[in-house]
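Good morning C.,

I know you're traveling, so I'll keep this short. The sequence:
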Amino acid sequence: MQDFFCDKRLAGIVPQLNSKDIERGEISDYKIYTRCRSVINGFLNGTITTNGIEVTGKTSASVMRIVTACKTVLEAMFNNSTSLLRNIRDNRRVYTSAASIAQIAELDDPRKKLKFLNEILDNMNYNPEFNSQNTIPSHSIKPYRERQKAWARRVGYKLKEI
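The tokens, ready to paste straight into the viewer:
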């Protein structure tokens, strides 16, 4: 997990954290804001200015869809920041569809970047090693255990039967 949150090549995809924040186990709201802003900028391939993020070549509707989707995932991730930082510090394994960090760094489509962020969020929610099960709200009507089994089948994780 540290590979994702502490690798500068992934700065436009995953919020980058420094070792002091991870060791301390807390991160300030201002740092969360600046890290998330740089991720959204990376999603849009824009420029950060004093007025916000300037984007050229995209319609305002497509920009808003990307920003809203990215914001939703980042809020869910950082609303559970104690668990996030604890699991980064413990360097838990994250099950993703990507084969390497270089492959993730080459993602250029905002939908693919968002899919990767969702994979991290799914790990936080469904992976028993993270000890943060069912803490992230879901709009699904399926019970938590069914969603967890579906995640385990998708990533090839062996769940222990209770």
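Safe travels,
E.
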